[in-house]
Amino acid sequence: MNDFNNTVGTNAKTDVGLRDFMLGTYRYMMMAMAVTATVAYFFGQYLVANPAFVRVIYNPIAAIVMFGVVMVGFGAVGKKLPSMSLGGVVAFLVGFAAFMGVFMSGIAAFYDPLIIAKIFFMTVAMFAGLSVFGYSTERNLSTYVKYAFIAFLGYIAINFLGMIFPALRPTGPMDVIINLVALGAIALITAWETQMLKRVYYGSAGDPAMAKKLSAFGAASLLLAFINMFQILLSLFGRE
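^ thats the sequence. predicted structure below, dont judge the formating
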């Protein structure tokens, strides 16, 4: 009987700890989203005043550099996470959010604010639903997510090719199909990332300091998924 009570008590504490960990991750993510939006808005105003600078940011070389910086940044911080301070991880999160804001500035500058708001709330609703699914499902999404990553990398490659060779850029129904496949891929990746956050929490439950760093690092990963989802939805439904 005592063993049963102890088990129930431990599970309850774990559930509360997991809830606090996830809420902390989403608080970090919302803070990072605010940074991204702020940088995108003010840098977008600069682009409006200096339209020639748009070509400096939106070209194949810049896109490849951005992709490389994001991959290298996540890889480096992920490896050094155990030895980093919480402040260092939060600084990475804020820096990453600002970096993404620069590349989102064209949307802030040249899209109708009403369209941006519509797509933003669509993204929030979709992201929230996927997060709930990833948190609650008992199915191991790791079995399927590798295919989602392959599909999404293919989507990125197609976009790169379209920037380098405009004649190869998909149009019409093919463009819609490619974006729908990419949306399905990023949806699965988002749910999987939420599921993985639960696992990394349980793996660090005995180390509160590490759990806080994983929370901030996880927020950066979720922010990237959110931005990708937003951009795909904008491509599908953002036309006036």
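Confidence is low (pLDDT under 50) at residues 1-13.
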